[in-house]
Amino acid sequence: MHTKEISTKQAYGLWLIASGLLFYEILLRVFPNIIVKNLQAHFHLDATGLGIFSASFILAYGIMQIPVGMLIDKYGIRLVLSLSMLIASCNVFILPYIHSIWAARIARFLMGAGCAGAFLACMQVIRLYFPTHLRAILTGVTVTIGALAGFVCNAGLIWIIKLADWQLFIWVIAAIGLGLMLLVWLFFPKYSVSTKKQSLVSGLLQVLSNPLAWFIGIICALMYLPYAMFNDLWGQSFFRVTDHLNVIQAGIVISAIWLGWVIGAIFWGWLSFQLKSLLKPIVSSIFLQILALLSLLFLHKLSFYMDIVMAFSLGFSASAMNLCYVFGQRINPKQSASSSTAMINSLVTL
Description:
Layout: H1 8-34, H2 36-43, H3 47-75, H4 77-93, H5 101-115, H6 118-129, H7 132-163, H8 166-187, H9 202-208, H10 211-242, H11 247-275, H12 279-298, H13 304-318, H14 322-330, H15 337-349
């Protein structure tokens, strides 16, 4: 192995930088929502065109999970993420200077490709530089940072766009990415965890040939699916049609799902630390999630406040899926850590 030994202080420093990469990924996901009118005017987009533009990011993010995971396992975080952040931030920077919608979609696609390794880098740092008993709780905190990033970006960046031109807003976002690239290049060790003789695909092949890795990946995806359906897709419509809630009330219920996720991500990591087990919290959360789903489907008309409690329970229980990433790394070789996370993330994204 070629993993450099570092101090505890350095390990937490690398984890903070990696968490910054995850924050930047969320930032690039949400910033088009803040400058919708500017983008539509600049590129002459209708609603469909804007949707395709935004979706290009997620498409690239999903496609590049496994290739980037393989590259991180082979060449390490320093080289791969430095190049990724350069690609992402440069394509943000050029956005005001291009006028072709196809060029804009390609730039958006490359932003997603550049961010594909952000969460993988976080998990790799946790896997390489922290003891086993801390990995679950650190994963929970990392995911919470990512969840909070969406709120901070939407709340904080709106003020920036009100005070400045949208092109300056774009340049600020690009500058943040270049700053993160510099931090990764300066502070991450230039060591990889693979051997020199290991081929690029050997780590992935080890993961794909492990039946337990497939099982835990499918479980993780199934745990995420109900959360995504209510929180990301149909929650607003469901509660407005079935419970006759207004827009504000339905928004409060959906926010309860998000709040449950934020709190649960840390709780399940802490519980895993206390129980010294990953399996027990995962199984417990599945039963809680089933109960929350059945309640939402059949008891949702009891009261508005019961909707909030059940929605919170759904987000709280679903957040235990993050333990599956730690479990996946544990059952695969150390040199395949990023490939393991990438495979699970691909199933979740799918």
